[in-house]
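Review form for a predicted model. The reviewer records the input and the model, then writes brief findings.
Reviewer: anonymous (R2)
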Amino acid sequence: MTRGLIEGLASPRPLIATMPGLYQDDPMVQAWLAALDEVLAPVFLTLDTFPAYLDPWLTPPDFVPWLAGWVGLVLDPAWPMGRRRAAIARAAELYRSRGTKDGVAAAVELATGVSPEVTESGGATWSAQPTSGPPTGADPAAPPYLLVRLRVPAGSTPDLSAARRAVELSAPAHVPATVEIVPEAARLGS
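Model under review:
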């Protein structure tokens, strides 16, 4: 990513003003410094607006993948720009809840635009005592599972592969996951 010369962009800090009066009147020095001003103007512009480059909602579109790399995301280029920017903005939140029911739901919604129903076997706990039993309410003999159900209007087809990728990246690695798309029946009287 580079920012090139911008035709007609004036430097906010002309170099000629920094020169002693003797040189300010010299036409060769004026021409030489005007050329440097033209080259440096985009640098000053970029530095003056640098905080905007770090905001996923304000950064130029060609900087979105660069910013995603800073937060460890690889964005799907097929996603609309708004969804890519939202993924970057929510990266810390998504990482913090990764592996949880809410984290899986947030990742799938971001990837597909559909709010899913997530059902899981549950059963997570911790203890300082090495002999503690299984979590309350969990059947230790039951296998773990994760079911992600997308309810969509009849005729609508969300990207199932995107939903599966989101589940794969956000669910616990040891838990088998299933992704279902369930078309909602047309409502009576609609």
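Findings: The chain is about 40% helix and 10% strand.
Further findings: The longest strand covers residues 146-153.
Recommendation: see findings above.
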